[in-house]
TrEMBL record:
PROSITE patterns attached to this UniProt entry: CYT_DCMP_DEAMINASES_1 (PS00903), CYT_DCMP_DEAMINASES_2 (PS51747)
Gene Ontology BP term (one): tRNA wobble adenosine to inosine editing
Keywords, ordered alphabetically: Hydrolase, Metal-binding, tRNA processing, Zinc
Entry GO MF terms: tRNA-specific adenosine-34 deaminase activity; zinc ion binding
Enzyme Commission number, as recorded: 3.5.4.33
Originating organism: marine metagenome
Descriptive protein name: tRNA-specific adenosine deaminase 2
Length: 143
């Protein structure tokens, strides 16, 4: 999660919402990303999607079974769908998103019986560190 926080910091420096993600296979990072939606004018430029794309390119397959994604903010519905489509085995996230979180806060798409894949979820890892970055970012934007 500390590497995901480094990615979140990189997003913040770029003027993006500070969310970072990594994909881990075994003991190595195979994908990483941070939010780039604003700078790229791309609504799919979320940290999770970028990390999944990076991992797929490095591994040579868009299916990423037996991987773990670490992300600083609970995924939105779009990102949760991408995690399911990639067959990511586990998700570890930091800050909860009660308004749009799709991993248990507002809804739970990742463990839905309607989906053809389930992704086990661990929530609240380094939650204070992850939440403080988001809070600080939005306080600065409102000045």
């Amino acid at each position: 999660m500390r590497v995901a926080l480094e990615e979140a910091d990189a997003a913040s420096v770029s003027g993006e919402i500070p969310v970072g993600a990594i994909v881990v296979s075994g003991d190595r990072i195979v994908g990483r990303g941070h939010n780039r939606s604003i700078g790229s004018s791309d609504p799919t430029g979320h940290a999770e999607v970028i990390a999944l794309r990076d991992a797929g390119t490095r591994i040579g397959n868009y299916r990423l079974p037996e991987t773990i994604m670490y992300v600083t903010l609970e995924p939105c519905p779009m990102c949760a769908g991408a995690l399911l489509h990639a067959r990511v085995g586990n998700l570890v996230f930091g800050a909860r998103d009660p308004e749009a979180g799709a991993a248990g806060s507002a809804m739970n798409l990742l463990e839905s019986p309607l989906a053809n894949h389930r992704c086990q979820v661990i929530a609240g890892i380094l939650e204070a560190d992850c939440s403080s970055r988001l809070k600080d970012f939005f306080q600065q934007r409102r000045l």
